[in-house]
Amino acid sequence: MTTRSHPRWVTAFLDSAPEHHQHGVGFWQGATGYALSPPRGEHEEFATLLPPDGDAFLRVQRLQSGPDRVHLDLHVADPRAAADAAVVAGAVELVDRGHVVLASPGGLVFCFVDSPASVRPSATVHPGGSAARVDQVAIDVPRASYDAELAFWRTLTGWREHQSSIAAHFRFLLPPDGQPLGLLLQRLDEEDGPLRAHLDWGTTDRAAETERHLALGARVLAVHSHWTVLTDPVGRTYCLTDADPG
Q1: In the CATH scheme, what architecture does the domain 124-241 have?
Q2: What is the CATH code for 3-113?
Q3: What is the pTM of this model?
């Protein structure tokens, strides 16, 4: 893929089942401290979480059917050309609506769009002094498809790969300076099954941020040495980490 096909910005979409979409959106507004744009789309199914500074990188979508998920929008100069190159790399094209919807070799949905964005928002400082920002999308991959999926996203983004010093089953793809979201490819213990994705936050005070999220309705699933796994009130998994949110 050429550099023109590599993403110059990445947006994460929180896609929610219709029956609890509003509840989920309310939690993520509270957790991020971001405002919510007016709805848009044919069925008013899309909205943007608006940071107080910088360009938006988190959006929400009310699905017509199906379970909650996270998908990515990759902002490129030429979505059609980027999609053609992605198919060569192993993606499956699903639909072209001006923005092109595809799935990775393992089935993770993503889109190529041409919406401009360039200024990464600052971390939000919350009452009590802790600062946090969603800073990474983790793609959770069963062992059988891990190597192929990692190679695909490395080719798709053109980003530098970095081996984690914390966990052997983590590989980071590091974006250019100024982009809001990096990628983590996490190899699961399960041999096969569907891919999924979740959001990771960087925090300056993980314990304080955990308490703040619990007060908003989150639930802790597990606490590790460098990250805490939670679910939001509708059951969507995400992590708070010790990564620098700035």
Answers
A1: Roll (3.10)
A2: 3.10.180.10
A3: 0.95
